[in-house]
Amino acid sequence: MEKLDGKVAVITGAARGIGRADALLFAKEGAAVFVSDIDEAPLMEVVKEIEAAGGKAGGCAGDVTKLEDCQKVMDKAVEKFGKIDILVNNAGLTRDALIHKMTDAQWDICVDISLKGTFNCIRAASKYMLKAGHNGKIVNVASVAGLMGNIGQINYSAAKSGLIGLTKTVAREWGRFGITCNVIAYGFVDTRLTREKETQQEEVAGEAVGIPKKVRDMILFQVKPMTPEDAAKPVLFLASDDAAFITGQVLNVSSGMYM
Ligand SMILES: NC(=O)c1ccc[n+]([C@@H]2O[C@H](COP(=O)([O-])OP(=O)(O)OC[C@H]3O[C@@H](n4cnc5c(N)ncnc54)[C@H](O)[C@@H]3O)[C@@H](O)[C@H]2O)c1
């Protein structure tokens, strides 16, 4: 008996990084996984990878900033697998700049994806989750930047901090359906968002992401970096019945980056 046998999980931002690792781990633990991302080609590779390993998967591209896309994703997940037990709101990006240099566009895209995107997905899934005795699990993805603030990340810190209030409100409103809602605050996970900015080639939504070498070296001097696979394990815990009585909590998964 695996931890997620018989469960259906929807995971956003699952084309790569932490979301992909969540999807692979959940499938290994017996869940039928419906993945979504704004980038369709790598997303479909994740579906194929899960199926090739003998797991159950489906996928549909979508932009979490658009409620209609989120509704389409949830509808297709239910069309394919019949229900939604678990929702992981993982899609996010960084768009760093010092306060006096940050543009409206940088603020908006970051807050829209992390904060409004999570609200959109929860609203879209409500059609399938708000049932007596549903006992579903929602896991949101924040950052220690939302707990401690971070130089160059006023947009990201505000969005991730906002997810904490959002999470507690969902936990309170939906607790009567047996649904839990928690949020993970990660520290440093090795993905394209945390690679060396000066040498990374990959752009995300038209801008370079990553961390300046100087800052990155300083972080790595103090904390043990996580792989996406390391980062997926606490998501599995919060999505499983082991965490059935944990709700409205912020789980700090940061190797002591913030304590
Ligand atoms: N990497 C870290 O150290 C770290 C630390 C704290 C929090 N986080 C959070 O973890 C989550 C995953 O990040 P990651 O590090 O795996 O980054 P990543 O860039 O590897 O993965 C993020 C995924 O989200 C997708 N995405 C972006 N905008 C989207 C949109 N509008 N709609 C749908 N999908 C969209 C991307 O295409 C990408 O596949 C994010 O919410 C991020 O803020 C990461």
Would you write up a description of this structure?
It contains eight helices and nine strands. The mean pLDDT is 97. The protein has 259 residues and is of the alpha/beta class. The protein is globular, with a radius of gyration of 17 Å. Strand 2 (32-37), helix 2 and strand 3 (56-61) form a beta-alpha-beta unit. The protein has one domain: NAD(P)-binding Rossmann-like Domain (Rossmann fold, 3-Layer(aba) Sandwich). Helix content is 44%, strand content 17%. Nicotinamide-adenine-dinucleotide binds at residues 12-13, 15-19, 37-39, 63-65, 90-93, 113-114, 141, 143, 186, 188-189, 191-194. Residues 12-13, 15-19, 37-39, 63-65, 90-93, 113-114, 141, 143, 186, 188-189, 191-194 line the site of nicotinamide-adenine-dinucleotide.
Give me a quick take on this structure:
With 259 residues, the protein is α/β, with parallel strands linked by helices.
Q: What tags apply to this protein structure?
A:
alpha/beta, binds nicotinamide-adenine-dinucleotide, 8 helices, 7-stranded parallel sheet, 44% helix, 259 residues, Rossmann fold
List the helices and strands and how they pair.
Elements: E1 8-12, H1 17-28, E2 32-37, H2 40-52, E3 56-61, H3 67-81, E4 86-89, H4 104-129, E5 137-143, H5 145-148, H6 154-174, E6 180-186, E7 203-204, E8 207-208, H7 213-222, H8 228-239, E9 250-253
Parallel strand pairs: 1-2, 1-4, 2-3, 4-5, 5-6, 6-9
Antiparallel strand pairs: 7-8
Helix pairs in contact: 1-2, 1-8, 3-4, 4-6
